[in-house]
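[Meeting: bench + compute handoff]

Bench side (C.D.) handed over the final construct sequence. Compute side (W.E.) agreed to return the predicted structure before the next meeting so the bench team could plan truncations. Sequence as handed over:
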Amino acid sequence: MAVGKAREQRALQRQERLMDEHVPAIRPGGFCGPLLFLRPRQLPPPVAFCSMPSPLIPVPPATFDAAIVDLDGTMVDTLGDFAEAIRRMLADLQLPAIDAAQIEPMVGKGSEHLLRSVLKHVLPAADSLQAEALYPAAWDAYQRHYLQINGQHSAVYPGVLEGLQSLRAAGLRLACLTNKPGDFAGPLLQAKGLDGFFDQVFGGDAFERKKPDPLPLLKTCEALGTLPARTLMIGDSSNDAQAARAAGCPVVLVTYGYNHGRPARDVDADGYVDSLAELRPA
C-alpha cells in the first residue's frame, strides 16, 4: 500500500515539474472531457481516455488563440430548412418530392452539390443531361425559397450557446466558416442569436474553393490573425476534419451532425464531443 502511495506521489511531483513543457493533446481514441488540455511531452499517451483516469494537465486557454466553427450540423440543425426549400423548389419544377431523411446525407458540401444530388435522385438515372439542364432553374428557385424560410424550420443544438460563451470567455477569437452561401449564413446566425459571438463569418462562396479544401481554413486563420496550429476547427463532418488536417489545424467533431450519413467517430479527428458545452477552458 505504501508503495502505491509513493508511486502516486512521485507521479504528482513529476507532473508539477513538467507543467511548463506542453504539447497539444491528441486523443486518437476519442474525447470525453474538457477540450482545453495539453499533455506533457514525457508522459505516454492515454490508452483509453474514456475508460481510465487521464494524466492530462489543465492549462491556460492560451493554448489556442482562436476557433473556427462550422454552422450546419454543428451549431444549427438546418435539415428542416433544407427540406422545405427543396420541397418548394421541386414543386416549382414539377418534379417528385424527396424525404428529409434522403436529403440529410447530401448536406455539407455546399448548395451546388446538394441541388445536383437532389436532381439526380428524383430523375431517372439515364437523365443526367436533364439534371444539368434543370440546374439553373433549380438554383434560382432554391435560392428564392431558402431566403424566404431561412431559419424558420431549424433549431440551435443544445449546448451551443454555452460552448460559444465558454470559448469567448477563454479569450478566443471566433469565426464561423461554412459551405453554406454567405447570403444564407449571416441571416441564419442573426436569426438564431449567434452572430454576436463571431469576429468573422465566411460562407461557401467567400473563397475560390470550399471545405474539404484547406484554403477556406487558411484564409480564415489569416483573417483572424492566428496560426493554423493555434486555431481549433470545430465541425461535424469529414469535410471539416480533412480541411483542418490539410491546413494544420487541430480539429474536434461533434457527434450529432450530418457527416454524409456516417458516424462522426469514424472520421480521423483529434477529439469528439457530444455537445459544444463540453468545450470548456481548463
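W.E. noted at the follow-up: Residues 1-60 have pLDDT under 50 and may be disordered. C.D. will use this when planning the next construct.
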